[in-house]
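Inverse folding, one chain.
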């Protein structure tokens, strides 16, 4: 049986998680691809949205907030995007880049007291196209196979001092020549841990104690659902990732998790069609659902705008309830 451990060190709250053994016998996640999963045979009619019944509207619209919902009062937000750069992800990266402008405009329109944003992108592997010295997993992307994107006004992450849409589009289109062994949660946790975010790290200054963290995962495969010698996924299990994230931010309510991944039908996936399908992401769902402000969406959707628009409410609620942990 695999045994995982979580160690929290002082200072920057370093989170070290390790997995002893590799049989993963206590995990009952999928052992077959999405298109062979009996739950995901998928004769259902595809739908282009994420399956929720949220009203669609242009990005940037201000929400009609319930009277009992407190006004947003967090002053800073850190947005971390974990983008799968394996060979099936080109269309998804394009959809993410297209939807970003409306998403960030919607956040700004609704978080009226928030005026400080850090935005970063990491890939699901050690990104070979990044600048020298920052090609390890979890390092924020400032350079892709298409050329330099940053550094930006405040360093290796994007801020309001930059052209947000242009900067994000450059960084988010990370290409599709990455590893097929995606380490989505290892990338996320390493990006905000002291190895990368601490003094001297590639992501120094990105993560702030007084900022709400919004984590966006975009991937068409689960994290370590089928563990082999070649495909291991992130170390540990969803419970370990959850503990590590909470240890880093102090409270689980200080984190919003938005996961665009493989979901059960009805969805917009096309089983058997190359690059238009997704593996059912049970482990990513377990991680996402553990957070009060966690939400799953369909990575196969042609347009991510409805998903992001429908996620604004939980970002507003999380911001209103944010509590900095000393």
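Residues assigned per position:
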């Amino acid at each position: 049986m695999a045994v995982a451990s979580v160690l929290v060190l002082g200072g920057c709250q370093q989170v070290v998680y390790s997995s002893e053994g590799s049989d993963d016998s206590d995990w009952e996640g999928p052992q077959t691809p999405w298109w062979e999963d009996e739950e995901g045979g998928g004769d259902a009619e595809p739908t282009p949205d994420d399956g929720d019944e949220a009203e669609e509207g242009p990005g940037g619209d201000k929400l009609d907030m319930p009277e009992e919902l407190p006004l947003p009062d967090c002053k800073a937000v850190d947005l971390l995007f974990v983008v799968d750069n394996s060979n099936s992800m080109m269309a998804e990266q394009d959809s993410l880049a297209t939807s970003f402008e409306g998403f960030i405009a919607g956040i700004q329109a609704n978080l009226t007291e928030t005026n400080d944003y850090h935005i970063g992108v990491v890939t699901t592997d050690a990104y070979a196209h990044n600048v020298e010295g920052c090609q390890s997993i979890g390092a924020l992307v400032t350079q892709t196979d298409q050329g330099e994107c940053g550094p930006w006004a405040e360093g290796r992450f994007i801020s309001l001092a930059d052209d947000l849409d242009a900067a994000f589009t450059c960084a988010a289109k990370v290409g599709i020549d990455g590893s097929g062994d995606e380490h989505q949660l290892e990338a996320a946790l390493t990006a905000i841990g002291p190895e990368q975010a601490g003094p001297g790290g590639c992501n120094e200054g990105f993560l702030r104690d007084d900022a709400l963290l919004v984590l966006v995962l975009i991937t068409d495969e689960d994290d370590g659902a089928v563990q082999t010698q070649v495909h291991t996924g992130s170390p540990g299990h969803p419970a370990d990732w959850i503990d590590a994230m909470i240890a880093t931010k102090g409270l689980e309510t200080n984190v919003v998790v938005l996961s665009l991944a493989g979901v059960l039908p009805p969805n917009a996936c096309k089983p058997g069609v190359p690059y238009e399908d997704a593996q059912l992401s049970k482990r990513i769902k377990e991680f996402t659902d553990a957070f009060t402000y966690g939400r799953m969406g369909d990575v196969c959707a042609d347009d991510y705008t409805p998903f992001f628009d429908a996620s604004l409410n939980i970002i507003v609620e999380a911001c209103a309830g944010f509590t900095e942990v000393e």
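The chain has one domain: 38-57+68-320. The radius of gyration is 18 Å.
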